[in-house]
Amino acid sequence: MDIKRLEKTLNEINGFGDEGVGINRLAYSEEERAVKEFFAELCRKEGLDVREDPAGNIIARRGGENPSLPAVAFGSHLDTVYEGGKYDGALGVVSALEVIRSLNDRGIKTEHPLEIISFAGEESARFGFSTIGSKAMSGTLGLEYEELKDRDGVFLSEELLKYSLNLEGAERSGDDFAVFFEIHIEQGPVLEKQGKQLGIVTGIAGATRFHLTVQGQASHSGTTPMGYRKDAFLGAAEISLALESAAVEEQHYGTVATVGVCEVKPGAMNIVPGLAELKVDIRGISKESKDRVIEKMTFAIAEAEKKRGLAVSVVKTADELPVTLSAEVITSLKDSADKLQYSYELLPSGAGHDAMNMARLCPTGMIFIPSKEGLSHNPEEYSALEDIGAGAQLLEEEIIKWAKVVHEAKR
Ligand SMILES: [Zn+2]
Known about the structure:
nine-stranded mixed β-sheet; four-stranded antiparallel β-sheet; single chain; alpha+beta; elongated; binds zinc ion
């Protein structure tokens, strides 16, 4: 493991899409294409067999002594959000390459083949649809993606055509993989606050989302006495606060609830709000815990309707199942972290990752690196090189364990 070499490669990767503010390597853009080609070349220099699958994922393979065995795979993504940071995605891909370089340096050969996978189009920023490459690989696209377009009106299908890609052809079988690992920055504040070097991810939260329309009655703010109002905003506020306390009660399950949008209409200082539209996002790795929050929200809605004479319509706009990561892989990661004497925390991931799709194909594990101030999707995103080195070392340890060493040259 050569942490300086890892840092150098990370900087080279971040030379792509860096024009002004943050990093801009959007899903299926020219910049993503260019960085993938650069990365593929780095992999070839390490003796890996590199191909691009039909969905645009880069797969760099190192043969195993026993080619009939399933691959030990690891990676992340090279695309970013608009004005993104230097670590989200890129860190996992670069760490994967550093593991291969280190095995090459050490003359280590493995029984199982190894695969670095750099997934295409992980971020939803451009097309409003996330983890495209890993969904294509795991056969879980399940959406009419032909209709998706970016903010400039460019269709995803046009971009795919331009690069001769086709999401349908990338599907792989679980039999291809023994295990999959992803290193990723935490993108939240927990590890930094707890002073831990690493996170071992227990599960990946699924989001359940609602669009609530609270119907009251708009009226004159000067002439309508307090007792005669049907204030849609106040109903919305009560529902929001009830959601907060419901999620606080569930916080030991890692469940969170957010009202990220509240639009009040007609939206004038001298009118009692007649309508409020809320967008609610509830996430967690326990379906039962999420269900209890939803139940309390439903109760709060009924209360607000009764108390304030409101009518609330509820539309469920998303309902993802949480992904539980493999207990065997978690135990293995803990054992290796103990052996290497790294401090770590077990924690759920509130954000989605390619690993959640790979978990449908094979046992899957994730390593989190602390994020300074929890910042991500932001040019200020930062993780310390020491922590990155610990994560990459832990990954190397796991790859050696899962892929089984058959030969180690003298150093
Ligand atoms: Zn990411």
